[in-house]
Amino acid sequence: MSITAATPAPRRRPSPLGDFTLTPRVLVIVAWAVPVGALGAGAAWVLLRLIGLITHLVFAGTLSTDTVNPGTLGAPWWVVLGAPVAGGLVVGVMARYGSEKIRGHGMPEAIEAILFRRAVVEPKVAVLKPTSAAVSIGTGGPFGAEGPIIMTGGALGSVLAQRLHVTDDERRALMVAGSAAGMAATFNAPLASVLLAVELLLFEWRPRSFLPVVTAAVVATLLRGPILGTGPLFGVDVSSWHVGPTADVLCLLAGALGGLLAVAVTALVYASEDAFGRLGGRLHWMWWPAIGGLVIGLGGLVVPRALGVGYDVIGDLLTGRSALSLVVGILVVKSLIWGVSLGSGTSGGVLAPTFMIGAALGALEGFVLPSAGPGFWAVVGLAATVGGVMRSPLTGVVFTLELTHAWPALLPLLIASAAAYGVSVLLLGRSVLTEKIARRGGHLSREYGVDPLETAFVDEVMDPAPVVVHVGEPLPELPGPTAARVAQRLFPVLDDGVLVGVVGRGALRRDPAGWAEHVHADPVVVGPDDTLVVVRDRLAAAGVTAAPVVEDGRPLGVVSVEDLLDRRQSAAGASRARASAGGTT
Q1: What is the predicted pLDDT for the residue at 178?
Q2: How, if at all, do strands 490-495 and 469-470 pair?
Q3: In the predicted model, is pLDDT for residue 15 greater than 60?
Q4: Read out DSSP for 273-304?
Q5: What are phi and psi of 511, to 5 degrees?
Q6: Which of 35, 97, 142, 370 could form a disulfide with 338 if both were Cys (CB 3.0 to 4.6 A apart)?
Q7: Which fold has domain 452-568?
Q8: Does domain 24-228 have CATH number 3.30.450.20?
Q9: What is the secondary structure of 340-354 as a DSSP string?
Q10: d(CA 201, CA 118)
Q11: How many CB atoms lie within 10 A of CB 232?
Q12: Count helices and strands in the chain by DSSP H and E runs
């Protein structure tokens, strides 16, 4: 006869509310996201109209707020050459004497504010950023409006949140909601704007931030209709497209080329920034945008339609109406003047230029690859380049679909964007966004993963048999370290089996006779069913390294920082072991 030990039943833990909780406080922030969305839409309208006004005044001497390509207004050569220089001077002065935060394309600045400045943005940035961007783009700068509107909408959300009694997380949610609202109103792309917020700005996927962002993007999109229109920005006729397996396979090649283009333009931007940085000892950075403006002007003399936002050029490329000379000119000249001038520190966005050069690359491929319909390869090139430059492949796909309404191209775009993303990650250490943050001394990770401390409970790692001190009894012998644990530092103090406080190892050693005077009567405690994340947060908030584990007033053990580190280390070791064995991590 054999005796088999019964397997103990697993501990029945309290039933949680769910993966996430939706509290009334979240609903309050969602309500505040409604006016934030309206402000974002209004900011987008103002920025686009201001760009049109400056463009017409500078290049045609007329009053109009319609968005137009500067290269189509027939300005004399000296205006084409000199306007970007003058615009660069104005932006440099605004940055030096207004706020240095307006330099660059806006997204790294928004990320920095979110991660390193508690989502606090100065109110003046909400005025200076769109104004400087309008000056830069309106005088011929080859930039997009989306980076400035991300910073502007985010600044509006942040300023409103600063007037409210909200937490840092809630302020971040409202700031990103403003950014997404501005994007949605600019491009009529609410889903892509939300995805961009999740992939690039939020660094989390939780109801407390996701719901306000969606609310603001929806409000901004609804308001866009009466002020900017409801149609796609670059509508494409897909009725004659015939996309088969051959085109799908070739999208791998198109995506790889888009990734190489992304690597090249990102390298160009930062090579330009390094070159301007070497001027720092001889020429103040305030003057650098003017030098970048000179490069823009020279490029405009070669390819006039490379100037400005260039929505009309993007539309021509995506509908197959561009001649080979324009395609090559845009691909070469637009890339050069955008990369060099952005590195000079002027104000302008990256998405619209990425759209244009990506569409130009795809249009060029269309002259070589088998035809799948007018503009098909340009649409694929756009998605691939966005996925590679921004390191946001899903945003690249959805943005392209919402901009063009080319819904049948979903699978080819996914293939191309993912391929470009893979090439970019393989060849380039950081994206055009994160490289700038790294150069300023910051560090961030955009990889999502499950924290092992989120999935482990206290009773799985605690010391279940710690030495305790009883009131009115002699002190026990203080244990030393073992092979499994460091020496116990915190000792629960019991009175009739009930926890009445804790005392440290140092106090017991220094004053074994008067240790009772060193008892902390209100210690940090945790429960056996708390996750290790809860323990981590409580220990960090109190500035201690260990806590008793208590249930119904009675101690069950002690948990320490070393226990948390052991759990994290064991999870990392298992991941490395799987990787070395050829598994996935």
Answers
A1: 92
A2: parallel
A3: no
A4: HHHHHTTTTTS-GGGHHHHHHHHHHHHHHH-G
A5: -140, 70
A6: 142
A7: CBS-domain (3.10.580)
A8: no
A9: HHHHTT-B-BSHHHH
A10: 13
A11: 16
A12: 22, 5
SS3 556: strand
Q: Which fold has domain 245-439?
A: Clc chloride channel (1.10.3080)
Whether the per-residue pLDDT at 422 is higher than 90: the answer is yes
Structure tokens at 295: 């490069």
pLDDT band at 585, cuts 50/70/90? very low
* 333 has a pLDDT exceeding 50: yes
pLDDT tens per residue across span 182-228:
999 998 999 999 988 888 888 778 888 899 999 999 999 999 989 88
- DSSP 8-state code for residue 520: B
Percent of the chain with pLDDT over 70: 88
For helices 288-302 and 335-343, the axis angle rounded to 10 degrees is 170
Alpha-carbon separation of residue 374 from 61, 125, 320, 321, 377 (angstroms): 37, 42, 5, 8, 8
* Half-sphere exposure for 48 (CA within 13 Å, toward CB): 21
Q: How far apart are CA 166 and CA 188, in angstroms?
A: 30
DSSP codes, 113-154: HHHHSTT---TTHHHHHHHHHHHHHHTT---BSHHHHHHHHH
Helix (H) / strand (E) containing 585: none
The angle formed by the CA atoms of residues 100, 132 and 442, to the nearest 5 degrees, is 35
User: For the chain, what are the domain ranges?
Assistant: 24-228, 245-439, 452-568
Whole-model pTM over 0.90: no
Among 119-128, 283-292, 391-400, which is the least confidently predicted range?
119-128
Report pLDDT digits (tens) over 42-58: 999 999 999 999 999 99
Closest CA to 542 of 495, 502, 488, 584: 502
d(CA 545, CA 565): 12
Please state which of the ranges 70-74, 390-394, 444-448 shows the lowest mean pLDDT.
Answer: 444-448
Sign, Cα dihedral of 359, 363, 368, 371: positive
Is the sign of the CA dihedral 165, 171, 173, 179 positive or negative? Answer: positive
Could you give the 3-state DSSP secondary structure of residue 150? helix
DSSP state of 457: B
Residue found under tokens 């004399």: 76
CA distance 138 to 68: 9
Question: In whole angstroms, what is the distance from residue 363 CA to residue 447 CA?
Answer: 33
Nearest to 127 by CA among 85, 90, 99: 99
Phi-psi domain of 376 (left: phi exceeds 0; alpha: psi -120 through 50; beta: other): alpha
Q: How many CA atoms lie within 13 A of 343 on its CB side?
A: 23
Q: Is 119 helix (H, G, I), strand (E, B) or coil?
A: coil
Closest-CA residue to 200 (of 445, 428, 555): 445
Q: Cβ(356)–Cβ(365) under 8 Å?
A: no
215 three-class SS: helix
| 346: its two tokens | 């002027």
Q: Do domains 24-228 and 245-439 have the same CATH topology?
A: yes
The amino acid at 306? A
Judged by DSSP in three states, 519 sits in coil
